[in-house]
Design a protein that fits this description.
The protein is of the alpha+beta class. The protein has 2 domains: 76 residues; 159 residues, Jelly Rolls (Sandwich), CATH 2.60.120.260. The chain is built from 2 helices and 9 strands; from the N terminus they run αβββββαββββ. Strands 1, 2, 3, 4, 5, 6, 7, 8 and 9 form a 9-stranded antiparallel sheet that branches.
Length: 272
């Protein structure tokens, strides 16, 4: 330690100068490094905690993201399964509808007809519009119109009368509807209904063949002066109907041998 009075270098533990005897100042205490170390330790701890927290946060975030991704994948998978289920159900529904439609078409193509008494109700059927009618023959009588149009005029005193030699077996009339309908019923006033005498003296159809949509059916009718009804089972989609005389009840006249039909009505509904 240097003496402040004479400049003599003394030992650090000396209290007085060994040269001049002057008192020496106490030695300076070294500053402690503990606070700095504490500060550094705190900073390191804070930094380490931050690093650990950052890593933990990232791991938690990654885990949540993975969970969300898995949930999204599961939701997408469930949606795909639901869409596939709905698609299959729709296909099955369409196939079932197509099968039923095919069965209905086949039923209408393979229709059958049978005679019935006058129905209490026609349900959804209504009288169909006939645009025109034609016949394979018409008797020519002066002062009388015996054309097939007479079967559609709503007048029982007029009638179609075939015009071939003999009883008219094989003669036909064809009705042309204004469009395709589902035909469900036919109604006939067979014979000449002008008077009871005309009815008895002229031939009346006994057996009729009905042709629709390329298929035909044959049926007999009683010899009665009443409206005869025929039901078409399952209906038939058509715009054209042909009636053929296959058998007759012979009239009482020795002069007339023609077969007559007074009125024909066709009932049905709109085709699908």
């Amino acid at each position: 330690m240097r003496c402040p009075n004479c400049g003599y270098e003394n030992e650090m533990s000396s209290q007085f100068c060994g040269n001049c005897g002057a008192p020496l100042p106490p030695p300076e205490k070294k500053k402690s490094k503990a606070p700095l170390i504490i500060v550094i330790a705190v900073l390191v701890a804070v930094l380490l905690a931050g690093v650990i927290g950052f890593v933990a946060y990232n791991r938690i975030s990654e885990k949540k993201e993975e969970e969300l991704r898995q949930e999204q994948l599961e939701a997408e998978r469930e949606q795909e399964e639901q869409e596939e289920k709905e698609r299959q159900e729709q296909e099955e529904k369409e196939q079932e509808e197509a099968r039923k439609a095919q069965e209905e078409r086949e039923a209408k193509e393979n229709w059958t007809a049978y005679r019935i008494s006058q129905p209490a109700t026609l349900e959804d059927s209504y009288k169909l519009t006939v645009n025109n009618a034609s016949a394979t023959s018409v008797i020519d009588q002066e002062g009388h119109d015996n054309s097939p149009a007479m079967m559609l005029d709503g007048n029982l005193e007029t009638s179609w009368q075939e015009g071939v030699d003999g009883s008219g077996i094989g003669e036909q009339v064809t009705f042309y509807l204004d469009r395709v309908y589902e035909v469900n019923y036919l109604a006939f006033n067979l014979g000449n209904w002008r008077t009871d005498d005309y009815y008895r003296q002229n031939n009346r159809p006994e057996t009729l063949k009905i042709t629709m949509n390329g298929r035909e059916t044959l049926g007999g009718v009683p010899d009665e002066k009443t409206k005869q009804w025929v039901a078409v089972e399952e209906g038939c989609d058509t715009s054209q109907i042909t009636i053929t005389i296959e058998g007759v009840y012979r009239g009482s006249s020795d002069v007339w041998n023609d077969t007559c039909i007074a009125e024909v009505e066709i009932y049905g509904e709109d085709a699908d």
